[in-house]
Amino acid sequence: MIPWEIWLPFLGYTIPMVISPGPGNTLLAAAGGRFGIRASLPFWTGFEAANLVLCLVYGLGVGRALQDHPGLDQALKWAGAAYLAYVAWRFFRMPAGPAGDDRTEAGTSPAKLRFGDGFLPVVLNPKIHTMILVMFSQFLDPARPLPGQFTQLTVAFLVVCLACHFPWIYAGKIILGRFRSARALRLQGWTFGTCMVLVAAYTVWS
């Protein structure tokens, strides 16, 4: 069992890291505003599934590959930027019809955010890799049984993620959901698309 005195610094580390603004939380807010909470669940599920996968990777020690091969960090950075550019393109092309409409202007399937749209931004974000790697390196005690600590930290981290990510979706729904005209929805698409382009540029040049 992890000592109780470890949990306060753990929360002090994870909560600010998870709830702070970033490309993932921007996407969560955009999904909430454009589609509402229920329709955003596939995207949100993919988002948290990716966090679980990274916890498994780094908690089980496979993450040493990034430390041993710095080039992987650059590859993730460029792949993440490319995917953010793709998401921006999808925002730019979002139809201006009501959020509940099941067809686009061309009569094709709606450009909603799916499970993979939530999964890939997390997996391709080097900063999230670093955050989780640091979390395990700081709060795992080699002198204690590792499987139990790994399980507790992973579950606690996912609980923090769920608690910190939902407010972004809800805020997007409450704030952006008030603007439902075709012009407002088109403006939302261009605004979030531009945000994704800027975040992609920052990711590459940071």
How would you describe this structure to a colleague?
The longest helix has 31 residues, at 146-176. With 206 residues, this protein is mainly α. α2 crosses α8 (146-176), α2 (23-39) packs antiparallel against α9 and α3 (41-59) runs antiparallel to α8. It has helices at residues 4-19, 23-39, 41-59, 64-68, 71-92, 115-123, 126-139, 146-176, 182-205.
Provide keyphrases for this structure.
mainly alpha, 0% strand, 9 helices
Contiguous helical run count: 9
Number of extended strands: 0
Low-confidence stretches: 98-110
Compute the average pLDDT.
Answer: 77
Largest sheet: none
> Which outline best applies?
globular
Structural class: mainly alpha
The amount of beta strand, in percent, is under 5%
The number of domains is: 1
How helix-rich are the residues, as a percent range?
A: over 70%
Q: What is the ordering of alpha helices and beta strands?
A: HHHHHHHHH
Radius of gyration: 18 Å
N- and C-termini, Cα separation: 38 Å
Concise account of the structure shown:
The chain is an all-alpha fold and 206 residues long. The chain contains nine helices and no strands.
Outline the secondary-structure elements.
Layout: H1 4-19, H2 23-39, H3 41-59, H4 64-68, H5 71-92, H6 115-123, H7 126-139, H8 146-176, H9 182-205
Helix pairs in contact: 1-8, 2-3, 2-8, 2-9, 3-6, 3-7, 3-8, 5-6, 5-9
